[in-house]
Amino acid sequence: MATPQSPTLYEQVITVTSDYLGPASERFVSRQIRNHLNKDPADLTRKDLAQLIRWIKATISVLTEDAEIANSYIADLTELTKLKGRTT
Amino acid sequence: MEVMDQVKHHSHSTHRYRLYMLFGFLAALYFILIYLTNPASALLSTHLGADNDRLVSLLLRLPLELIWLVVLLSYLRLDGYVNHLGDNKDGRHFAYIKNGLLALSIGMPALYVLNNLWVLLLQHDVISVSFAGIATTYSQLIVTAIAILLIARGTNGINRLAKGYPLNKLTGVLLFVGIAVGASFCFLVANNVSDPSAAPSINNVWHYLPAWAVIYTLVVPYLFLWTLGVRSIYEFIRYQHFVKGNVYRRALRNLTAGFATVIFLNIALQFITTLSRQSLNLSRLTLFCIAYIIYAIMCLGYILIATGAGHLQKIEEV
Questions:
Q1: Which of A10, B142, B206, B254 has the maximum number of C-beta atoms within 10 A of its C-beta?
Q2: Residue among B248, B312, B313 with most chain A CBs within 10 A, to mutate
Q3: Is the pLDDT reported for residue B292 higher than 90?
Q4: Which residues of chain A are within 8 Å of residue B251 when distances are taken between CB atoms?
Q5: pLDDT of residue B136
């Protein structure tokens, strides 16, 4: 029986983002990766995560004035940098 | 990808340009028809001559065109947002909602133009009173049906995306309001149909159709559409309540409030205008003022839709 693959880093970022941006999360994350990291979303690695989080931090402050929500989102994303698992 | 984006952008710009042209044409045609219509049918007689009556009639209707412009701009704002969603799951459903709003934004001025055209043709004895009355009533039903069916399809779709529970209290309130409105409407229609003293006019379609035709081709469709409209309000609110994403939910608030206001007030306006003046014992001027007040509040609803779409569009652009 084939073992199910663990989610990719990109999918993990979307999962975290969906708690804040719901249906718009995948579009939002892939746009940040394409526009600011100049790479395909599927190629996201743990080394890119810090830079991605910096861009998302700047962007989320435009979307919400609630600092608590913005900080919570960034904290959740930062947790991903500490997790072991798939590096892509 | 870049070429496709450019093609998409170009066709979207063309679509907006065509809408502005269509709106301008309808607005100009409306003014021309008001001017050509016999001042004896004016809302307010100044007793200072036909030209003054025409002028007053035109001035009284000017704010209406501003309201239509607000509706059109609100649609264009929502169109801009939905354009960003593309073929995504939520995009497909919001596209239906957007198209329903398009039907309202073009349907509103188109209906006014059409109604004044019937009045003009009636005054020149080209058509009969019965034809004018029936055409006026059923054209409003058709526009309402197109708008509400599209919006209902869209809200039904987005509602399925939000996992959660039924909003029982809201369901109860909406059910009660729906039954009360439906029962009142049926009572007023029955009153009107059975009143032999009501004079035949363009607003009094009951005179020209048998009771069964009024019930099954007007009352039943309107009650069905209003029920769908109320259900759409419920589904929109439920979606806003249960969709994932707290930032997204907040951005949806104005859009939800706007649509709820617009759908509810459209139903109220149809309720009042579908019944003849005789049924409600209101003068033309009073009916016009009531319609204006409803339109003004509806304007706020459309402004909420525009600001809500703006908030959501920001999420898709940053």
A1: B206
A2: B248
A3: no
A4: 63
A5: 85
CA angle at residue B184 from B225 to B173, to 5 degrees?
A: 70
Query: How much is the pLDDT for A11?
Result: 92
**Quick check: B7 pLDDT over 80?**
no
Q: Give chain B positions within 8 Å (CB) of A25.
A: 245
Ranges of residues in chain A whose predicted pLDDT is under 50: 2
**In sequence order, which residues have a C-beta less than 8 Å from that of residue B263 and are 6 or more positions away?**
B148, B151, B229, B230, B232, B233
Q: What pLDDT, on the 0 to 100 scale, is given for residue B169? A: 80
Alpha carbons B247 and A19: distance in angstroms, whole number: 9
Q: How many CB atoms lie within 10 A of CB B84?
A: 16
Task: Check if the beta carbon of residue A19 is closer than 8 Å to that of residue A29.
Answer: no
Q: Could you give the CA distance from residue B49 to residue B19 in angstroms, rounded to a whole number?
A: 37
pLDDT tens across B156-191, in order?
A: 999 888 877 777 788 888 888 888 888 888 887 777
Report angle CA B193, B194, B196 to the nearest 5 degrees: 100
List of domains in chain B: 62-317 (1.20.1070)
Report the alpha-carbon distance of residue B262 to residue B258 in Å, rounded: 6
CA distance B9 to B294: 36
Report yes or no: A33 at the B interface, CB cutoff 8 Å: no
Cα–Cα–Cα angle for B220, B256, A63, nearest 5°? 160
Per the CB < 8 Å rule, is A23 touching B314? no
Answer yes or no: is pLDDT of B88 > 90: no
Domain residue spans in chain A? Answer: 9-82
* Interface membership of B160 toward A (CB under 8 Å): no
Residue B207 confidence (pLDDT) above 90: no
Residues B25-74: pLDDT tens digits? 998 998 888 888 765 555 555 565 666 767 777 777 778 888 888 999 99
